[in-house]
Amino acid sequence: MATAAKEPSAGNGARVETVQRESVVVRFAGDSGDGMQLTGGQFTLSTALAGNDLATFPDFPAEIRAPQGTMFGVSAFQIHFGSSRIDTAGDQPDVLVAMNPAALKTNLPSLRKGGLVIADTGEFGTRNLQKAHYAANPLEDGSLAPYQLLAFDISKQTLESVKEFGLGNKDALRCKNMWTLGLALWMFGRKRAPVIDWLKVKFGSNELLREANIAALNAGHAYGETAELSGPLKQFRLEPAEAEPGLYRTITGADALALGLVAGAKLSGLPMFFGGYPITPASAILHALARLREFDVTTFQAEDEIAAIGATIGAAYAGNLAVTSSSGPGIALKSEAMGLAVMTELPLVIINSQRGGPSTGLPTKTEQSDLYQAVYGRNGDCPMPVIAARSPSDCFDVAIEACRIALEYMTPVMLLTDGYIANAAEPWKVPEAHDYTPFPVHFHEDMPESGKLNPYLRDPETLKRVWVKPGTPGLMHRIGGIEKSYDTGNIDYSDTNHQKMTDTRKAKIDGVARTIPLQAVEVGNDHGPLVVVGWGSTYGPIRQAVEHVRNQGHDVAHIHIRHIWPMPSNLGALLKVYDKVLVPEMNTGQLKTLLRDQFLVDAKPLNKVSGQPFRIAEIEAAILGMLNQ
Amino acid sequence: MATAAKEPSAGNGARVETVQRESVVVRFAGDSGDGMQLTGGQFTLSTALAGNDLATFPDFPAEIRAPQGTMFGVSAFQIHFGSSRIDTAGDQPDVLVAMNPAALKTNLPSLRKGGLVIADTGEFGTRNLQKAHYAANPLEDGSLAPYQLLAFDISKQTLESVKEFGLGNKDALRCKNMWTLGLALWMFGRKRAPVIDWLKVKFGSNELLREANIAALNAGHAYGETAELSGPLKQFRLEPAEAEPGLYRTITGADALALGLVAGAKLSGLPMFFGGYPITPASAILHALARLREFDVTTFQAEDEIAAIGATIGAAYAGNLAVTSSSGPGIALKSEAMGLAVMTELPLVIINSQRGGPSTGLPTKTEQSDLYQAVYGRNGDCPMPVIAARSPSDCFDVAIEACRIALEYMTPVMLLTDGYIANAAEPWKVPEAHDYTPFPVHFHEDMPESGKLNPYLRDPETLKRVWVKPGTPGLMHRIGGIEKSYDTGNIDYSDTNHQKMTDTRKAKIDGVARTIPLQAVEVGNDHGPLVVVGWGSTYGPIRQAVEHVRNQGHDVAHIHIRHIWPMPSNLGALLKVYDKVLVPEMNTGQLKTLLRDQFLVDAKPLNKVSGQPFRIAEIEAAILGMLNQ
Amino acid sequence: MNEVTKIAPATKPDDWASDQEVRWCPGCGDYAILKAVQRTMPELGAEPHNTVFISGIGCSSRFPYYLETYGFHTIHGRAPTIATGVKLANPELDVWIITGDGDGLSIGGNHMLHLVRRNLDCQVLLFNNEIYGLTKGQYSPTSRTGTRSPTSPAGSLERPVKPCAFALGAGGRFVARTIDTAQKHMPEVLKRAYTHKGTSFVEIYQNCVVYNDGVFEQFTDKKSAATTQIWLEDGKPMLFANGSKGLHLNRETLRLEVVDVVDGDTSEVIVHDETNKAVASMLIDMPFPEFPVALGVLYCDPATSFDQAMEEQEVKVVGDKVADFNALLRRGQSWEVKGER
Amino acid sequence: MNEVTKIAPATKPDDWASDQEVRWCPGCGDYAILKAVQRTMPELGAEPHNTVFISGIGCSSRFPYYLETYGFHTIHGRAPTIATGVKLANPELDVWIITGDGDGLSIGGNHMLHLVRRNLDCQVLLFNNEIYGLTKGQYSPTSRTGTRSPTSPAGSLERPVKPCAFALGAGGRFVARTIDTAQKHMPEVLKRAYTHKGTSFVEIYQNCVVYNDGVFEQFTDKKSAATTQIWLEDGKPMLFANGSKGLHLNRETLRLEVVDVVDGDTSEVIVHDETNKAVASMLIDMPFPEFPVALGVLYCDPATSFDQAMEEQEVKVVGDKVADFNALLRRGQSWEVKGER
Ligand SMILES: Cc1ncc(C[n+]2csc(CCOP(=O)(O)OP(=O)(O)O)c2C)c(N)n1
Ligand SMILES: Cc1ncc(C[n+]2csc(CCOP(=O)(O)OP(=O)(O)O)c2C)c(N)n1
Ligand code: SF4
Ligand code: SF4
Ligand SMILES: [Mg+2]
Ligand SMILES: [Mg+2]
Among the four residues A571, B10, B391, D208, which has the most C-beta atoms within 10 Å? Predict the structure, then answer.
């Protein structure tokens, strides 16, 4: 476009160079209103379509829509993609797109020294500089010297690109993110078609906005294409990543969880009842399922978390696959009712999307600090299986596994995920329903000779009790939270019976270990000087860190635990054959407690409780430090 | 009395023998309506006045007033007393007083073989025998052969003794318990005067009932005195127990806790606010405090446990010594709010009177299964001190210690007691207020230079934050459950700050270990082949068991932990010098987890989860078994 | 859902009694309620195996154990939440909630509010003995100001909540009141509650002989009942004292007054309109003994029940959508990775 | 406790503004409420250091951070419980509770019920935007049936709870309603709430520009306000539309009707009696647009507040009892163990 030539910061005719890269980290940062999450999402899609492996990290503010230009109003989206395996969103961005001063101020610290800053000079006016507490304009005072800087007036560029549509200034500027996306697509040699398709769906009938956004996208792309820029603007070329053949899509943890639950219901042949109460970052699962009614899913927004689990207990009692979901504070409220589910031995899946704590804590940040609560946080001896997802796509399989355990053992099961996994996206090889073995449910209907049903009649194998649906003729019975007789199901306070029931509840849950896979070693040998043991969303950084040090010639292994409680039967023996055990956690050392208690191994904690995921480098350093002890 | 001679089962002129005993266990058992708890209480008092050491165990049904004669309606009271140190209510009764068939049926199993059964033949009619599911009358069918039996018509005796007062049959029979008490007093050579004083107070103006009960008491006593019985009726003589000089009274755990809290308030110089919601067995504490307004105690019965802790948090914020109390299910409900107290660093004492779990469980039975919940049962990294009482009188000191920690560190503190301790009574050497060092509270009132108060301004020593009472001029500030800046107290989501605050919260609680006593060894050496480690109400049976095996020449030690979290700084080192560690608990092994996690010692659990306290013999057997491994 | 079948009852009261020993205190009002329910169920044409009784915790909440139906003795205050899940999962079931003044209005008040607001199709029987029985006699949210109890030795300070007023304020569509000993009236009220589609809120004055004996005596006493009770009937003038007295609305103050009915002239007496919420709230607020205690169905104005609305929306939304799971997994943009790479 | 001082205000609105950046969405109704409160506090003669604002969780509950008073941003739904402890511990403090329709009526409904029932002396400002703002727009208990939201894509099914009706049913003694943009009326309502001793329940219609923009427009729109709003004044006839219309009670149906006021004849129009609960409930229940929306103080009938009753009982019970701790320890029967043994 003609405009490009006029671009001041353009110039001296040098051709733009192209560099080959194995992986790149890009961070888009702007005002909550700038649509950075959309930009990131579409860039992610185009990256996936280009066949790169990837991981993303949306990082948005707690405020709904903070005042413009403020630092706490900055919304960012980071993506790490490459031609080899990608496990994390990347320690440090190579490219930072900063749509205003606040975005630059808050995100610059994470940028790799020598990395590229793309800034919209149009937003660096005095007002915005003040809001970001900048005394002088960083684009001009040389403070960005350690980085490469590409600063030009994206706002102006955008306005011109959509001039013809005669939008108001506000609406016109809203197209900035598409202009920027266009430029980014060009930088990485990406196709615009899928984004354009998406824009068509998004704006549908609103032709004006649709065409304007498309125009902005094209203009941004053309800008890279034609602007003969000196300096930092490069084009990057990345080979597609190796990947198993098959159909792929990108998916977030929340969506994968929702789909996994639907799969669990399908495999069990039961209708699903999902009771929830909105809370960040758990709400997304409820939102997703609320749209899937045709899959025999009933969602219920309760008045609070206690009502949510209460309703699911009722639905389980009535014969549904019952699921409830929340995050830390809400799970705390559910703890009394969990005891009821344990006592009445009803199947239930309880999902905890962990966030920064304690108390209200940091609702939009990620953490792993609810493991204690999951395993120990109930009154009485109240055993409950706990399993954890390691990545967005892993949520699908873990959800199915949670449903299986709940139904095969008639027990509540706690599924742990976290804010990072919930919002992050990664490519996912879409499975087929028939890839999974069904676990159909049998409701008890036969009349006991005695004429009186014992609701605690158990399967000698699994110790699970019979599941009798209200409405079944002749099997009327009463259950409740008071201790019941092992033999009749009637109230029984006797010492021998309470001992027997306590032992049985424990034995049943311990027995779950018999139907879960043995613990495998992710990376490295099944013995050696050091093993790094993790769980949940630390999977990516641990795996990368271990591979880095292995590439440096260190014999280090990575074990990642899905089944937190009960643990795989071989885990204790497995850990004992390593000289040292390092346990990185985004908490003050909770899995560590379980490992030391259960196996008496000298597990050493590596703790990070900042609301941010581990960086690969942090774990790498800890490993090397421990090796050198 | 003439009647005595007519007594059928009386007879052949032999004089009643007197036996010397070091200790005796007596169990009174009857219908809920028979007043066994009163009988036991008064017998306890007379025992105490006689200078014996003692321990009691009231064991009443869950039902308020179950239908007469039923087995689940049986109420029992056991007392163990002697001339040497008494730590438990006794494994097996030597004497069982059974007021009806149901009482005999349910309590006989615990009676020592060869023990004495005193039964009221007047209640052993067909109707009552049926209710107790007796095919034949056990008093006649020889099934009691393994025991000594003294069966005679106590009902008839009682009726005759109060005939003169012309009471209705129902009221007259109500005097049975006093008649029985009279007999018991005679058996153990006790004075009637204190009981008579008590009856005078109890019935006050109601002369008729007062005199009738006194008459019944005297008649029962005279019966023993004069009835020349052959066979089993003996008089027991017990020397007074050694005891430090001083003033003594008997006290239950619930009362001792209430008094300890008042003491804590007195020592801190603060008014007390107690917020509770009724629940067994915690209610007694609320009841006791509700009558102590003149001690600047405000009690508030909230709408539920969440409101109860909410109100106490509010009272703490406003500058009171705030206390809330419940049992397992209610504590579960409080867990979210506990997080708020941890986050806002407000002082709070949270009392858990543990009962059988999980869920509603066994409300009137005792258990220790809420330790996990106390230490780990909250969302996020949410550290909180936990301390436990070992006996009824110990509740007094533990309550004071809980108040001290809460106020000196600005933190919620969990105090664990249980249903056994709450209801059991023991002699208590009454302290003086000045036996305890005060811990006066300083409210922050100085204006910061900056003009802006940082509510997280900390004491460099203890790390406790300043306590600023609303109403203080110039120090207006905002607190809340969202993470706050270490430096300003304003909302702060930044990674560095969250890490710093998490570390600070942890360091503050870990630091409590600096002001608690080092762990002592209760009994035995500070090293050796085996140490038995306990906490809470297992103190008595563990101590006795350890002394028994030591008397058999085994070098076994007993360590009893009051400070569950943080633990005494020397505990780890202490435990490591014993070859074996045995941890008896009335749960499935919860303290065990802490010891193994914290100190990596191979602590072996001995678990009993029956709703009943340990028997000395059970622990003794486990010790010997472990020694012989 | 619930129509009372006209045909001869298929069950007998005994069919509704479980084999469990009843464990209430001798003389407890709960026995009378149990008897009334067991007597009424057959007349409703209800089926034991399609009936679920759900309770919280309290003496009253032991109720389900004594009925030969499906029963769930849940946790304190949460019965309405469990009932909601049961009914939504299987709308064919007859759901009854048994609760107490503490269970339903102290710890459980929020769930009661939302149950009533949502209008889930179920019957709520709230046993109001104005005390916490099971925990040995502490005052409750319905205890009168000044009630002495272990937690209020000098007398309680709070003003009691009126269960029926609360239910109305919560948007309840069926609010009724009866008495444990009213063995003639209670079955009628239970029938109305059962046939009403939506949440039927029934307060039952229940005597706790141990901790609150006789609190209701003044108006439950059969001897004086005629003058202390007014049983309301839709469309009938509000008369009591054997028709010698009636309730009148003062057109100036817009408040109720008691008027004498002189030789049958009821022109001044207002007629009970079950759908008039404001009048219902006046009836509930009438102070005793200046006014009689209003009993029977105080308010009834049916609206779509939550479970029905849910079913209807389900049909509408799902329509003829096919639940293709594999298609669902593939929703949104996806890409193929070819084998030959 | 709270008398509005007649003397010249000792503080200025700015004295009530904290140094914190306000973080609501641009255009949020919360800004207007904040402004009104900061403007009104000086006129109340309130003192910042004796004032405590306590909130739960929600956009609305961020309110305390922006006021230069003592403030406690607690946890979701529990503000009334914390407020109760604060007031009982120090009755001298002015306690304000800030809550939302979700915080106060969804998770917090039970505490609100008991706060209001106990009549703790405090002011409750319930910001009703008929949506969960902070969690990004799910429907709330006050959302109208059919509200589409992330959790109700096909429209919500429940009938909304009316905050003021709930407060009345809970036994509230002061119930008022106003609008975020009513900068003239709101201060008046706030003053009445502040001077009322007991729980003053104030519902404020608040516009959420992001998730529920314009839900109240039909009656908040200044242009049509005259006919869509009726501001009630004690002792005054219930007139609106600039006096051209009024509310009339049909003596037959005992329900409200809108009547035209012909040349100033208001004889048919009922007079607002703040102490008439039944009429208040009629006003709250008036359907819009058939009726105008009732605003202002709908009900006010003071009774002893919980904190006051507590203080009075304290004095009575304690009397001249001396608190002898050592004597307390020695209560009941005790015995001496002599030294020479
Ligand atoms: C979470 C929890 N809190 C408290 C209790 C103790 N508790 C059991 S029943 C009850 C109140 C019972 O009163 P009400 O509901 O009126 O029943 P009633 O016994 O009078 O029939 C209480 C406080 C409990 N079981 N669980
Ligand atoms: C225990 C708990 N459950 C859920 C949440 C999530 N949450 C925060 S605010 C909110 C609702 C807010 O709605 P409302 O009270 O109407 O306030 P608004 O944002 O609309 O002003 C919810 C569900 C939470 N923080 N804590
Ligand atoms: S305590 Fe009261 S309510 Fe409970 S069973 Fe006994 S009499 Fe009935
Ligand atoms: S989301 Fe709605 S209520 Fe919350 S700040 Fe934004 S506009 Fe206000
Ligand atoms: Mg009750
Ligand atoms: Mg809202």
Answer: D208
